[in-house]
Amino acid sequence: MISSGFFKTLLLGVCLIVVIDGANVGTQRDRSRSPVGSQSPSVKATAPQQENLPVNRQQAAHVFANAGKKAGLEIWRIENFAPVPVERSQHGKFYEGDSYIVLNTKERGGKLSWDIHFWLGEKTTQDESGSAAILAVELDDSLGGAPVQHRETQGYESDLFTSYFSSPIRYLTGGVKSGFTHVTPNQTDGIKRLYQVKGKRDARIAQVEPSAKSMNKGDCFILDTGKTIYVYYGSKSKRTERLKAVSGANQIRDQDHSGRTPVKILDESAREEEIQEFFDELGSGSAATIADETSGGDDEQFEKNIDAQVVLYKVSDASGGLKIEKVAEKPLSNSALNTNDAFILDTVSSGLFSWIGRRSTKAEKEEALKKAQEFCRTKNYPSWTRITRVIEGGEPSTFKQYFREWRDIFAKN
């Protein structure tokens, strides 16, 4: 059996965690992906001392008082240890220096269900990320502890998270703590912004340095000059990226310019002088000087799924330290699971599942999150590896699919 003593805020640990209770399900994300413009994750391996953070719980209680009352999406940005609502028109735009809480409320058969995500930018501060985790728990408690909780990091968002937005997620530089001013609608600050659109299936839009050196022939790019928004198709870019680029440009037009700025698409039919106009506005380069598509990274590698052996482990600390015992390999049978114990299913491509027997105590269920994090470190897995906590009797299909047959027999134990 696993010892007790940890709290919900263990969600802030070094691994990505999803909590599933009953029939609620959080989707998985493979841990081989690299974010746009990056080849390695930047999630910090150390967590702040959350109990010392001056989180404004009173303000949070006021802000969350009417949250989750009806179906829809609600987003808050963390500012000075408190949640600040994000206008609906600005949904889908995230600053890499900030942390956010995203609540999706669904209604089915007259009943509401919730998914809470706390999103951490690549350059968010530990104070902000810690506050986001704590405030996500506060929001969870205000909804009776029923929501599924997810931890999302920039570039590694779950499919569930990205499904909330009709246009690709857009990453912008800056944030509350950095001193950068957030982009506001109709702003004419004279700053030119260049965005890279990359991804074969699940494209992302990331702000990059406004220079021809940031470009390559394999991706699409959006240049926002304030007066005109240009969409540049790399000569080797994919059709899906081009569609996402147009969608992203329209999003920038609507979010940042209230729909008033023209969008100019530079495809194969564009005249040479139109192409040169783009580079003149950018301030450097030409179509002939753009780097080869290989400089942007391989899209297959970008979204690669690792096919590897699925292994089931039994986890305990009866001897005073973490003990991991290999129980079975694929093909699996759920007869290997025991209602009195805790197990970790390592699927590699879909991350880890932490399965908790029904007879485990509440403290033991919470402790399982810590054990899953320790398992990540023991296996030298990336800090952004996704973990799903599964309670016996509420196993999602994403968990059951790894067993050759599944019989719901544990209720009889």
Automatic annotation (TrEMBL):
Read off the Gene3D superfamilies from this record: Severin
Respond yes or no to whether keyword Signal is given for this record: yes
* GO MF term set: actin filament binding; phosphatidylinositol-4,5-bisphosphate binding
Q: Where is the composition biased (Polar residues)?
A: 35-52
Record domain Gelsolin-like: where: 81-161, 207-271, 324-399
Record's keyword terms, sorted: Repeat, Signal
Q: Which GO terms describe its cellular component?
A: actin cytoskeleton; cytoplasm
Q: Where is this region: Disordered?
A: 27-52
Stretch forming the signal peptide: 1-22
Matching InterPro entries, A to Z?
Answer: ADF-H/Gelsolin-like_dom_sf (IPR029006), Gelsolin-like_dom (IPR007123), Villin/Gelsolin (IPR007122)
CDD domains referenced in this protein's UniProt entry, alphabetically: gelsolin_S1_like, gelsolin_S2_like, gelsolin_S3_like
GO process terms (BP): actin filament severing; actin polymerization or depolymerization; barbed-end actin filament capping
The UniProt record lists the keyword Coiled coil: no
List the PANTHER family.
GELSOLIN, VILLIN
Q: What name appears for this protein in its UniProt entry?
A: Gelsolin-like domain-containing protein
Q: Which organism is it from?
A: Polyplax serrata (Common mouse louse)
